[in-house]
Amino acid sequence: MSSTPDILVVDDSKVSRMLIRAMIAATYPQARIAEAAEANQAQAAVEAQRFDLAILDMNMPGMNGLDLAGTLLAHANAPQRVCMLSANVQDATRLRAEERGVLFFRKPVSEPVIAEILATLSH
């Protein structure tokens, strides 16, 4: 990963996207952050560029985060790392994420959780 990570934040909540963006910027002020409110926007973003990290919400209108993760990871321009950030902490959801190679993190959005997600950039 370069010192200027490209990060995609996908969440249907504008407030969550704003919080995540602010917390990323506090750690990586030079990060280039793209936002998407739903799956189609996220897919278009991945078509346009390659991201070091994609942070996905689970529960969104239309395609859920796990299905979106599968779609993004199958793309030729797949993000290097995909993380799921969700309040849905059911074991089945976590297992499905792991099966897709998606790292699972629990909401609420907080500085320690975002720090954990950002730490995956160095792995």
From TrEMBL:
PANTHER family referenced in this protein's UniProt entry, alphabetically: RESPONSE REGULATORY DOMAIN-CONTAINING PROTEIN, STRESS RESPONSE REGULATOR PROTEIN 1
The keyword Phosphoprotein is assigned to this record: yes
PROSITE patterns according to UniProt: RESPONSE_REGULATORY (PS50110)
InterPro entries tied to this protein: Bact_response_regulator, CheY-like_superfamily, Sig_transdc_resp-reg_receiver
Keywords, alphabetical: Phosphoprotein
One Pfam family cited in the UniProt record for this chain: Response_reg
Modified residues (4-aspartylphosphate): D57
Response regulatory domain sequence ranges: 6-122
Top-rank lineage group of the source organism: Bacteria
Protein name: Response regulator
UniProt keyword Phosphoprotein, yes or no: yes
SMART domains named in the record: REC (SM00448)
